[in-house]
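Fill in residues.
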């Protein structure tokens, strides 16, 4: 039996897409989630970053792994590095990590995990996507406020972001998991155009036919708003990311999607049009 790819977070935004793309190619997938939720065409397996007892079974028959860090953990390296060492010892030779364009190797949080990858695996890649388009159309707080109020609130000012579709992130991940050439390294993944949230609101308005506005908050206003439902330290981090955008940190476009997949990344307009069609159809 051929070796399998372990997809951690196989029911999530990118993990689910990665699992589907791999199984569509006829490849073996071990779909990992905390409740071992069935995934079509894959072998469901229970996995919990905070339960080391789940590691051995999840890694059985696996030679590569797609890594989605634990959500909301300010120090994911504490639980991820012991797992990665176990993975290497069990025969895993390739790892693809989902990181963030805002966090470089050696930076805080997932940046510490990325820094460790070259010393652990023969082949590795760190996907560092920009902000997901799905944040504006899915179940994110932005998407909910857009649907319920016609408002998206940020502290980004006029700063621009090259929003990227999760489908494109997954396509790059599958390339990194399966291809022998140009498969690894630090991969910043963006959409085709850097847009302000004012621009994004205009696209949403034009495509949906419902007026959407961008309400600009200060860093302090956003931090305090987020702190109503999140730990204060985490709220400050998230508000700080918006402040970084306002200062130009995410105003860039890369060729990663087209270079590795052979097709251009989906535009925000095309993504919103598809989302509207899926609801209507």
């Amino acid at each position: 039996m051929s070796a399998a790819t372990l997809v951690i977070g196989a029911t999530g935004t990118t993990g689910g897409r990665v699992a589907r793309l791999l199984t569509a190619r006829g490849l073996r997938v071990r779909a990992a989630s905390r409740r071992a939720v069935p995934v079509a065409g894959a072998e469901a397996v229970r996995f919990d970053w905070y339960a080391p007892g789940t590691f051995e079974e999840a890694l059985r028959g696996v030679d590569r792994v797609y890594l989605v860090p634990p959500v909301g953990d300010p120090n994911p390296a504490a639980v991820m590095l012991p797992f990665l060492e176990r993975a290497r010892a069990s025969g895993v030779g390739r790892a693809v990590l989902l990181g963030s364009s805002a966090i470089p190797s050696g930076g805080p949080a997932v940046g510490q995990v990325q820094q460790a990858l070259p010393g652990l695996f023969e082949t590795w890649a760190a996907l560092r996507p920009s902000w997901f388009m799905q944040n504006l159309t899915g179940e994110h707080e932005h998407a909910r406020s857009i649907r319920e109020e016609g408002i998206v609130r940020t502290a980004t000012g006029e700063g621009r972001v090259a929003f990227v579709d999760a489908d494109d992130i997954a396509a790059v991940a599958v390339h990194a998991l399966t291809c022998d050439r140009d498969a690894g390294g630090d991969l910043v993944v963006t959409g085709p155009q850097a847009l302000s949230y004012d621009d994004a609101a205009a696209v949403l308005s034009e495509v949906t036919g419902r007026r959407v506005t961008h309400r600009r908050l200060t860093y302090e206003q956003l931090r305090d708003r987020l702190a109503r439902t999140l730990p204060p330290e985490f709220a400050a981090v998230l508000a700080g990311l918006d402040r970084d955008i306002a200062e130009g940190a995410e105003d860039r476009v890369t060729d990663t999607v087209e270079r590795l997949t052979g097709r251009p990344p989906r535009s925000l307009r095309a993504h919103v049009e598809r989302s509207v069609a899926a609801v209507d159809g």
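The longest strand covers residues 123-129.
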